[in-house]
User: Fold this.
Amino acid sequence: ELQRGGNSILPRRQIVSVLFSDIRGFSAMAEKMNPESLTKMLNDSYFAPLDNILFEFDGTLDKHIGDSIMGVFGAPIAYEDDAVRAVMSAIKMRGAMKNPAASAGEAARIIPVGIGISTGVVLAGIFGSLRKKEYTVFGAPVNLASRLERLAQADQILICEETYRYVRHRVKVEKIAIPS
Assistant:
């Protein structure tokens, strides 16, 4: 985008779908693994495949936060089906974590993930200080996606009502009550 003029990364308000993925039981898992095995599992069996899936669906990898992944669909480039692509990406991510080591040639290790997705208006752009700047998004949809991810059980994808409006004819969903 920078090479094409960079206009799409100037700060602006826009509708996006934000996806958070997090490993369930990661702390307990980390305590039982040596640092080398944990690093290999995170990098090769979790971050690499899920980041690739994000890109496959034209999402933007916003950041890794510990064992969480934050992805954005609709910024810096927006498409009509950003919410659909976010949900389809989440479905593929969940499937990839049921046998992530198969591609790495190791014994199968299921990595249980919880995923949350929210759609709405955010402020997108490059933010930071002189020491570090990054392209990211801010707003209620980011907070809601993070909250939905924390509430999601292992292998569960939770979406907000706004995301549901965009995907209701494309995927089968089940309505659940979320604690206030």
